[in-house]
Amino acid sequence: MSLNILKSIKSAYKFINENKNSSSISSIALIPTMGALHEGHVSLIKKAKKECDVVIVSIFINPIQFTKVEDIEKYPQNINNDKQILEELEIDALFLPSVEEMIPNDYSTYINMDNISAIKRPIYYKGAVTITAKLFNIFSPTHVYFIEHDYQKIFLIKKMIKDLGYNISVKTIPIVRDENMLALSSLNSLLSEREKEEAAIIYTLLKEAREEFKKASTKSSYLMDIIKNNLRTHKMLKLEYIDIADKDTLTSVETATKNSIILISCYCGSTRLLDNMPLK
Fold this sequence. Notes:
- The chain is of the alpha/beta class.
- The chain has helices at residues 9-20, 39-51, 69-73, 79-89, 99-102, 122-139, 151-164, 193-199, 201-214, 220-231, and strands at residues 5-6, 28-33, 54-59, 93-95, 143-147, 169-173, 237-246, 260-268, 271-278.
- It is globular and about 55 Å long.
- The chain starts with a strand and ends with a strand.
């Protein structure tokens, strides 16, 4: 089956209208991505195919969630490989719009979530949530699928869905990791093998902090210091932020509980790596 590629919003509307008219279709899955698909995306698509009648994957490198031009220019792209993966998985459609299609020069509408003070990198997430909302408006999905790699993004999209009254169910899968236990990300392709080995310490330290929590060490600053102090000995890694937050509010907590989550962002060279670990 050849891959159905939609490059315009008009063609996306047509695709959705044709499918909604079918009595056999009651659920539509949307999987928003920025491409450079990996095994985590494959697992996500397989889950969506089991649960929904129609599966749509979008690939859009979103310029409004980058603060520097050089960051978007170095974002990995391999569209031919992505298309091959999606063809083999037999998804129903790939939405592959241009920047001009999604964000024309006169674009001026954004989702503002600045009132959630706990957000790290608010410009990034403002851009991510805005484009996700636009995708919702285009495809009217019943379900949207994410990997739990970026907990903040999932939290904010759930909040946006609630606030704006979308009738969309958020589905997730746990973080998918490589053989070194590094969280899979499209950006990992920018890492050297040595950098990947070094970055594996992130998961090890998250696990160590969780084990300390299970021993009744609940002071957040103590748990975070375990990670900070050990990271200092790994010169390839530079900590951007670490936080222990309540999973339901994203608010930082002084005393960790089973409802807390450790959020961390590190740079390995110039590549930004996200990870997280629930303490339950």
